[in-house]
Structure formats: structure tokens, C-alpha cells
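Sync notes, pocket subgroup
Present: LS, DG
LS reminded everyone that the earlier model was apo-only. Rerun requested with FE2/S2 (inorganic) cluster included. Inputs:
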Amino acid sequence: MATPVLDKVEAESTASPYITVTFRIRRFNPEVSAETTWEDFQLEIDPKERVLDGLHKIKWDLDGTLTFRRSCAHGICGSDAMRINGKNRLACKTLIKDINPEKPITVEAIKGLTVLKDLVVDMEPFFQAYRDVMPFLISYDKNEPTRERLQSPQDRERFDDTTKCILCAACTSSCPVFWNDGQYFGPAAIVNAHRFIFDSRDDAGEQRLEILNDKDGVWRCRTTFNCTDACPRGIEVTKAIQEVKRALITRRF
Ligand code: SF4
Ligand code: FES
């Protein structure tokens, strides 16, 4: 005969982990309407699953027209940044249980970039700003190195944080200055400039600083910290921007 304790253990082990959750998604299809609309989807989902899993269930089982980007599903490629419950996050790194599944979970495209369809935005202005800061190592040494360029651990440490960027645009698209006119380089471009400005092996720091000294460069930053809050990699984005500003004033980097 089963004991009450065993009954409880058995009941817990057979209890369904699934709960009913509402995904409220902002839809946009320019071929159908110029307006965006909110659409609700009810899902049975394990709260330990991620928002990305919910979007997959919707796309695969309920509405194949739902459009969003994702690739790695593990926080590496940076393609699935979206506004979830009003905050920029990666859908693949956001667990349902962490965002109050008792209320509808709102999902919409990141702000400040033109929405092409549903959750997909035009990333070209974002990547243009990235290209503008020359995000690659530049050496003016005419002699081809015969071995790797050495660097001390202390020199490497200076830009360690900014090497972690996955170009998801969560920072730039959470910045009110970027929302205003879209001309500002934005936090992500500055983070990637920082990564090379403070690299002791690179020779083009001065050029990058001049690029960011532009009217649409670092001085547009109003230090609202939205970017730091939004970064899924935990990069101290505002601090990096401040360091670039300081380097511009002192020209020491
Ligand atoms: S700094 Fe962070 S939020 Fe901004 S693009 Fe890089 S990883 Fe994304
Ligand atoms: S799908 Fe690659 S970071 Fe989320």
C-alpha cells in the first residue's frame, strides 16, 4: 500500500509542467496593411522553456506567417533581440518563468529601426554604423610580422569587456537618442570602436576617435544607462562610452 509521502512524490513526478500562457505579439505585414496590430496566441508551455520556444510553437503549430529572426538559439549569434514585456532581451535567453507568465507576454520588434515584418527590423543602419568605426585590427607597421603580435595581460584587460559584443542591437535600439533621429552612431558601434581603440596592437585609434568626435558620435550620449541595462552580455556599455569620451578629451588611450 502506498504511503502518503510516496503518493505525494508520485503525484509531483506525474504532474504536468505545462501552463497556459498568452503571447501578445505586435504583428506587421506591409503587404496586408500599413498598420500594426496586436495578436494573442494561447500556448501550453513549460515555464522553464524560453520565449523563443513559444515563438517556435506559434510558428510551427498555429501561424506559419509569424516572422522573426533567430539562428543559434543559445545567446551567441545575436539575431533574436526583441522587446519582451517592454524590455529589450534575447528571446533565446529569456525563460517564461522569469517574466510573469500569469499575464500576457508582450513581444514586439526592437525600436528605432524600420520594421520589415512582425519582429524583423531592417538592421542595415545599425551595421552601417558598425562598419563606419572600422571594427578590425589596423596596423601601419610595413614589416609583415613573423609571429603573433604579443600583448600583456594588463593591455588585454583594457578592452576585455567590449570583446563580448554579439551585435544584437539591444543596446542601440533601447537608446532614446537613437530613437529620435537614427543618425547617432549608437552604443553598439561605440562598443566595437572601444574594442580596437584600447587594443595596444592597433594603430588606428586616433582615426576612430575622430570618427566618433562627429556631431552624431559619442557626444550625443546622454548617459541614460538604457544600453547597459539592455545588454544580454552584461557589457558595461555606458562605461565604455565614457572611456571613449575621456580618450577624446585627453587623447590618451
Ligand atoms: S553591446 Fe551588448 S546589447 Fe549592444 S550589440 Fe553588443 S551584445 Fe548587444
Ligand atoms: S538565436 Fe542566437 S542569440 Fe538568440
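DG: The mean pLDDT is 94.
LS: The radius of gyration is 23 Å.
Action: DG to write up.
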